[in-house]
Amino acid sequence: MNIALALSPLLVVALGALLLMLAEAFSPRQGGLALGAATVLFVGAAVAGGVWMYGIERLPEAASLAPWLLLDRFGLFFDMLLCLGGGLAALLAGGYLVEHGIERGEFYVLILFATLGAMILASSGDAVTLFLGLETMSLGAYAMTAFRRASPRAAEGALKYFLLGSFAAAILIYGFALLYGATGHTDLAGIGATAATARTPLLVVGAVLVIVGVAFKVSAVPFHAWTPDAYEGAPTPATTFMAVAVKAGAFALLLRVLLIALGDASWTSWAAGWPPVVATLAVLTMTVANLIAGRQESVKRMLAYSSIAHAGYALVGVTALMRDPTQAGASVLFYLLSYTVSTAGAFGALILCGSHGREAVSYEDLSGLGRRHPAAALAFSLFLLSLAGIPPTAGFFGKWFVFKAAIDGGLYWLAILGFVNSVIGAYYYLRVMVYMYMREPAAGAPVALPMRSGYVTAALLVSALFVLALGLVPTRAIEVAVRAATLGAG
Amino acid sequence: MLSLFPSNDYLLIAVILGMPLLGAFVNGVWGKQLGKDAVRVMALTAVGLSFAASVAAFVALSQLADQQKGEHVKLVWNAWEWMNTNGGAGGVTVPIDVKFSIDALSGVMMLIVTGVGFLIHLYATSYMADDEGFARFFAYLNLFIFSMLVLLLGDNLPILFVGWEGVGLCSYLLIGFWYEHAPNAAAGKKAFIANRVGDFGLICGMFLLVHYTGALDWNGIANGASSLLHTGEQARVHVWPLGGGQYTGVLSFLQPKSPVTISAATAVGLALLLGCTGKSAQIPLYVWLPDAMAGPTPVSALIHAATMVTAGIYLICRLSFVFVLSPFVMVLIACVGAATALFAATIALVQNDIKKVLAYSTVSQLGFMFLGVGVGAFTAGFFHVFTHAFFKACLFLGAGSVIHAMHARIHDGDPSQDLRNMGGLRRWMPLTHWTFAGATAAIIGLPLTSGFFSKDEILYRAFVNRTVNPAAAALQGRVYAPPAWIGTALYATAVAAAVLTAFYMCRLYFLTFWGEFRGWTVGRPSLLSKHEVAAHDDHGHGEHHEDLSTPGHPPHESPWQMTVPLIILATFSVFAGWLNPGFGLSRQPMEHWLEPVFKEATEGAVVYAGGHDAAWAEHMTLPLALGGIGAFLVGTLLAWWMYVSQSGAPAKRAAEAQPALHRLLLDKWRIDELYDATVIAAVDSLAETAAAFDRAIVDGILARLTALVVAASGTVLRAFQSGVVHVYAAMMVVGLAATGWFFAVPHANATVVDSGNNDYLVTAAPGVGYAYRWDADSDGKPEKSDFGADSTLKLHLEPGRSQTVHLEVKNSFGLIRSKSIHVARPEEPTSSL
Amino acid sequence: MSLASCLLLAAALFCVGLYGLLARRQIVAILLSIELMANAANLVFVAFGHYRGGALGQVFAVFSIALTVAEVAVGLALAMLLYRRHGDSRVELASEMKR
Fold this sequence. Notes:
The structure holds three protein chains of three kinds.
Chain A: H1 2-26, H2 33-54, H3 73-99, H4 106-123, H5 127-145, H6 152-183, H7 188-195, H8 201-217, H9 226-233, H10 236-261, H11 274-293, H12 299-319, H13 325-352, H14 369-372, H15 374-388, H16 394-408, H17 412-438, H18 454-472, H19 475-489
Helix pairs in contact in A: 1-2, 1-4, 2-3, 2-4, 3-4, 3-10, 3-13, 3-18, 3-19, 4-5, 4-10, 5-6, 5-10, 6-7, 6-8, 6-9, 7-10, 8-10, 9-10, 9-12, 10-12, 10-13, 11-12, 11-17, 12-13, 12-16, 12-17, 13-15, 13-16, 13-18, 13-19, 15-17, 16-17, 16-18
Chain B: H1 12-34, H2 36-67, E1 75-87, E2 92-102, H3 104-127, H4 134-153, H5 157-175, H6 182-213, H7 218-224, E3 236-240, E4 260-263, H8 264-279, H9 288-291, H10 297-306, H11 311-318, H12 320-323, H13 327-348, H14 354-374, H15 378-410, H16 430-444, H17 450-464, E5 465-467, H18 472-475, H19 486-513, H20 524-539, H21 560-575, H22 589-602, E6 606-608, H23 614-619, H24 621-645, H25 649-657, H26 659-666, H27 671-689, H28 694-698, H29 701-720, H30 725-744, E7 750-756, E8 759-764, E9 771-775, E10 792-796, E11 802-810, E12 816-824
Antiparallel strand pairs in B: 1-2, 3-4, 5-6, 7-8, 8-10, 9-11, 11-12
Chain C: H1 3-23, H2 27-52, H3 56-86
Helix pairs in contact in C: 1-2, 2-3
């Protein structure tokens, strides 16, 4: 029974997904599916919160599932984060799919299963469950990307995502095969425990392959190239889901691998371990993504690059894990939380700006929005400011904590590069606001008309609430992140 | 009251702060839909309730002060914990909380802001009644009240800074309120830049305070302030070379013989002073304030006269215990204040725009306040803030009333503010005239009015006060002592400024309200020519030929919403001086009220000049008061003679006799042009020396070149995003190969740690599957021929000796890398920098 | 067969798959290449499972094959989507989005 309680977030989402699949199959009217999916996910988040407050330590039976599922506070934090991100995406889909005439119930089922996969991924402590979670999440994401069957771009984006994703999965599984050969273990803790004694090149090659496979999932440069195309081709709610939930799941995987499997001193060495590699990835990811994002004509594609850049900022915090796993880990978790609500809000605002089969994609589509639809423009501005890291929003504290973790770890240059990058980033975020408030659409040019949808409005309100609350009262969320990271390290 | 709200969790502050914020929000979001009446009610209710709550809080505070006599009492509300940073000597955690407090100082300011703010809101409901942006205006105005209260009530520097930026933002928004006019937008920009320079100082001050005192809240800074005066070389701020480094190589000529250092107290004081000069419009950053008068007149009254611009003086008072630690900074504050007072007064002598005169007068009066706090007379300086809020708000609102009346006749912005078009208005605007006269009496120092008492105290203190370093004994003579004549100089400058003040204010008053109305013909010619054109085109000659001298309807008195605030403010202008009357009178409520706030700062730091005692100072009271009274008499009589008895003829003659000087004054000493010239000249010379880069520098490396580099590299990088799956996969393979290469190659690296006893520990960096081989004496023969797990090497070195260690690293692939590490023990211990 | 030759065979399979991924144009061929790489990993698991004893390696291989099948199903569906549109399944037909 106690195991069921410890597993309850996963069970809620899994059962909800099955029920929703049945409902979708048997009910001709599918109007309430979005609400159903969002409810399941928010209930999942609430249940995870309940288990968190009850205290997972008081459920010792939960440990019997280790190493396949590590039911700890780290996992619960990601359960809440992923359910929140997935729930927001489901709400956005409820407005978007109807408005663009592709309302089919399987989308919500896909969201639920993909979220479930991400939750399993975040809790997994063994390569078997890791793959199970990873593939469940990825297959759902591939299918959602291709959801607009009539659109060539959707098919193209899904194809690229799928081919490269399968490639990365093959790399990852090959890496784990070599690690298994080197250590005799497929569980992360076992790999970590025997890594010190296993002096074989297989271990190093396996670790390289695993790091690269995970780097693909967090779309770090140069493993990022699929991201803009898949994000642009996908229907925007699917983009939102990939940008928040898939990315958060991938970061959970990265943190678990680096902390548990590659956590000993020789792996965290600044001279020869993974920190310089992750730092290089962080710098490349921030810089390349920011530079390209500034040259985009499509706001949607700009946001895709922006989400790559944000993975770079989070990687700054990941690099700092080498000195202080708890504080740096907490900074990454807080960053992911602030990034999730800001990005979901920004994509949501973009969704709100389009209607009747016409998405708002370019900067021109948004010109004069401040006058035409002040509420939408205000919401969009809030999320853009948060993405740019301007106080008093969640994004400011996200950046503050990862840069502070880097500085505390002695990585001044990394923090400075991160800061320079966020200045470059501010340029293209503010450019959107310039279009919304200071430009008028050219005479006769078609303008995107904002839609009216309770679902989208609700998603925006929830995101805005989080963005402001995390910016004004971040202390509680930080305490939560620190507790989650503490157990994740142990 | 106190039982309802305990003093350590004083929730009423939430009401004081929350009401204006609510008003701003409601009016900002729904203002257009609500209509003007609802906006008016909302705005007035918000500020009115905030004022009522302020009064209640003030009463509670005074009760608490009575209970705990002489203590520095506070009503505190800790809203929530915000974030943490590190600082101080031990790198302690410095909490930054959203915390507000009301003490004697912020309490008085809070009353001024909400009280005067309410009156000005009331005034504006009528003044702005016909404006299109009515709701927007009141949203900004309420937001300003909120920000100003955050600035005042914030219990730490970051919260104060939030308010500081907030009032700045509202100021630009309101200066540019009529943003259709290009000059208004330009004025907003100017204010923005000047304030950014000031903010830079404030931020530097904040960093220095965190670094040296390890605190950012007022109590914490007060407790840690003593560490700002540490005598150790490391506790001083290295000005040159910056940060205590060394210039080597080609830059070695920049290395001074001995590093230039200042005490941390002076560094903090200078940085904060820069911030205060920006906000309070002092030399050299005063240029934005006169231009800021482009905004609506109630804004000028509230923000650019009564409240926001005094924020700099408030900050000096708030952190008085930091400023007094550096007598140099104190003298600098006094000199800046005196110079600004005199300088701005000379410009005000000849201006013809009624608001421009008042603007320069504000700059000048702010100078008096700086002078007061600069000589350590914090109460006197602050009391002038208090009285100035009333009489300057009254003057601006009176000017607004006049402009309102003139505008109704002329329908044109600038001529209706021109003194040359006014005159004799007391006939039609008796209430405006009498209230204006009262406020003028106060500012020129008519004995027994409020301005007389507050200004006189500053003049007096400037002469008798001197600040000394409270830790002079510990600093062993490394203290700054101002010259002995400084008191006399400051006093003389201030008296001169007071003479000019009396003169230009009387000039303004006489030109506006006395003599004959000169505005009959203004605006008529344009009207006339229009008629003439129409007549020529349509009807031929002769019809409707309007007489130039035909009087239109005369200027009229303003409605009650405008006159009631004037009356209240004028009353306070005349009588508020009795709160702190000076001249050894026994009842000085203000001094008594503020004593606990400043006691800590002034004890031991502020003394009488020349080693005199209190008896000497008391003896000097009357002689020194003669200067102030004399200034009033001279200035007033001169203005009466020039503009009333001779109807302005001597002024014209003076202007004709000295055309260059007159021109110079009219052009405000051409300081704007000077700034332009110096900046442009600097840029030009740079451009000449670096001809290849001239365009880049002129347009700003930051602006154009960076944008170009960013854009170009973005374009180049985009080429890799070719859309072809194979290219993407190839990029991944390259990344995989690079990562694999990094791990396949061993990395020889080592750190050297001094482990004491002349022993050094050389530790090779760990790596997966690494084995190490050491050659401690670098003779080419390693100590052990096999690679081993031993990753550390111990070296024993006598002082002055050095040794090169050779390290070889082999990884699990069998690859080997080596590195030589040079370990040297210096002769002497490294310097204490 | 020794462990070393098994590993060499797996590495060779992986490299062949990598070459196919980079060189082939038809989506189905690319899919096959990726399958080769995944199966190289399975081979390593089986080989080490045999070498080290215990069921872990074999279990993982079976598990991984099942997951790969699901992946291929999605992949073929996407290939169909492209084929229906263009009447061809060369991957460069899907390179409209770039930069």
